[in-house]
Design brief:
Elements lengths: L1 H49 L1 H63 L5 H12 L2 H49 L10 E4 L6 H9 L16 E7 L12 E4 L10 H13 L12 E7 L5 E5 L15 H12 L5 E7 L8 H9 L6 E6 L6 H8 L10 E3 L11 H7 L5 H19 L1 H4 L5 E2 L1 H42 L6 H22 L2 H25 L4 H7 L11 H15 L3 H21 L8 H29 L11 H35 L1 H30 L18 H27 L2 H4 L9 H42 L1 H11 L18
Parallel strand pairs: 1-5, 1-6, 2-4, 6-7, 7-8, 8-9
Antiparallel strand pairs: 2-5, 3-4
Helix pairs in contact: 1-2, 1-4, 1-13, 2-4, 4-13, 14-18, 14-24, 15-17, 15-24, 16-22, 17-24, 18-19, 18-24, 19-24, 20-22, 20-24, 21-22
Length: 856
Amino acid sequence: MSFISVATRAAARAGGRFVGLGAVGVGGAAYVSSQVDEFTGGIVGATKSFYNQASQMAGDLASNTSNTIERISNGANKTAFHLSESLSLKFQDFSSNLDNLFNKNNQQEDDDQYHEGSTGSSSSSSGSKDSKNPYFLGLSTGLGLSVDNLDRESSKLKNDQSNGLMHLTRKLIEIRSLLLSIDKDESLVLPSIVVIGSQSSGKTSVLEAIVGHEFLPKGNNMVTRRPLELTLIHTPTSIANPNRKDYVECEQFGPGQFDDFREVQRRLTRLNLDVPDSVAVDDQPINLKVYSPNVPDLSLVDLPGYVQISSMDQPEELREKINQLCDKYIRKPNIILSVCAADVDLANSPALRASKRVDPHGYRTIGVITKLDLVDPSVGASILSNDKYRLALGYVGVVCKPPQSSSSSFESRLLRRGSNSSMSTSEELSKQEFEFFRSNSDHYDQPNLSLGTDTLKQRLMKVLEESMSSSLHDITNRVSLELDETSYQYKLQYNDRAISAETYLAETMDQLKRQLVDFSKLLVKSEVRELLRRELDQKVLGLLAEIYWSDRRMVELTKLSDSKVGPEGLDPYWTHRLEAAQSRLTKGGVGRSTAELVSDEIRFAVHRMIDRQPMNYHPNVCEELIVITDDILDGLKSRAADHVEIAVMPFRYDVEIDKNDWESGRKRATRLVEEEMRLCDQFLRAEKAELRKNWRLREAFEHVREDEERLRRRAQRRLMVEIEGKKDEESLIDEPEETRPPPVLLDRARRLRDMETRLEVLRLRSVGLKSKRCKVGPESKGFCPEIFLNVLSDRLSATSTDFISIDLLNRFFSTVLSHLFFLLTFFKEIFIKIFFKYFSSLNSSKFFWGDRYRMR
């Protein structure tokens, strides 16, 4: 009877496993179905409308996930049916065997009663045979085989579920990449895993253990200076290709696949070292994709490690830059992989501190404890128990220390160059990690501890899939809002009317023509003349500052403004100065400079046109329009410059000026001088405010003043020697180099001193321009050069405008409009193909028209 009780309990336990496994399978299928139904109901419908590529991907995703769930559900149902059928058959066999067993026992008891003369030994022998009855052996063997079959079927069902979720995660990562390529401002984004940690926490070893290759930059100094957006793509092997190679693709490397991970490491190191030491950290990411049958589908971001103190060759704000960069990535909805070393107290971990700041309860944070082999096993087990610094997702302990090799480093590098060497290294790491935890099983063999790199991979896949699935609802809502907005814009701009490729092209070209015509109306002769006058006024100011205002005899000219000296009594020195200024202004390439100025204005206007809608949707057309514009201008501006130079040639020798021209020139010259005074005074105020704060700059300024005084005294002594014929017995002793201020401060102090002198001269000239001498008329041009040069620049701008308008502007607009017809014909077929490719559903209300969806 005791064996029957045991058999009954075994059957009940087997039946419980049958039913429990069926429930697990159906429950897992229901969970996946609910997740995928939410996904297919949201993202598929949204993306199908807003972009053809997204529509195709979403359709593939819906089809694949539906097939996956159908396969999982059918497998679960089929398995449950077979399990229940097998269960009933086994129980029928079990009942039949029990009945036969009871009948056999009853028959045996009748035989024993019939043979009363049997000996005790024979009875005991008969009892011994009954204990080895073949029915019991068959029943036990059948139950054991049934349990083994159920275990295999349960393992197969779990693998189907895992493959289905892996496929779903891969599709979600593809959609994340597509959303990032379309939406640059990251308003539509799916989460990824962000890896943070200090420079000595073992962050690089963890990533390489997940990938199975050594490919990340390594070095003594800070080598990770840019974020690395790492996408792992699982490429399963097949019968046709059982030895699929691992390879890498990277935008920054250029086109092609790279299967030499040592070369990948060198290229990554070069990209990071391209960031100068003065900057130290750049927020432009490196996009890297790893294809391998040995990696899970994950989206990871590796960031520069936290530092506590900057070195001598690093900027002082390095720590703050790294903190800001990490804070940018660890915000929602990204998952945080906080890597901490076991030999450092978690209370001092910068990665854990940063994650606690943005994720206080640890709902998005997975803690990874490295270097467990450097601490006592009891200490490592207590850290992983998640008792002191709790995280909702817990901690995972890993040992990623590279295996020690007895060969030399050179030999080990040669061995690792083979295609299978990296995988053997990965296997050695996994084996070493397993041996470590097995040898310390007294402390680490606890059900609440998560150990090993494989466990970390599975947890990352599960958390990433759950996080992405939970974010899909919000993505779907945002895409729906953008579709509504673009539908509204379509109704607003096209009044809900159906358009074709030809009408769209014609309307686009008409709009471009209207913009060119409007610009030609704005750039009339008066505008061109004002543009050229401003340019020539700056040249006049430069000539005055170089020829007159920096001259130490300028005070004499100012004093002559109020005297009774006539033009014939003016010192020839000033007459020669005025002729030099006139010659430099008229012979300084007026035609070329004015033609270049107007050409640049036209180019700027064309760039403004193509930056607007809808031209900014067609980069090829915009490039062609820019080429056409440059070709036309290059052919016209040289001719216009030659004509301008011929027209202004008479002004090199003589300029006829009447009384009205002189008075208007005097007023403009006064305004220019006063504006220059205002700018000088503004500069001096700012510099003197800095002078009061910076004692070293103040010392340099005093040093410049003393140098000027010494030079003035030396000039006076030399003058006296020449007059009296005496020897200059006093010599000027040079100042020792050690006592002089730094050259940078000296240059700044000299510039400040020159500006003070300039302001004093401008004040004198402002008074002179308002004096009676300068109001007389053109005969006072030697006393008032500012007025004469201003009138001359006005004549030059007026003459240049006439020829620029005829030879450059009018010819350009007529030529470019004729070229637009050629552009229309040339791009007609391309436009139609692009139109029908991207706008196949023009008559639907979901036609979208916005900045985010551009025709490439």
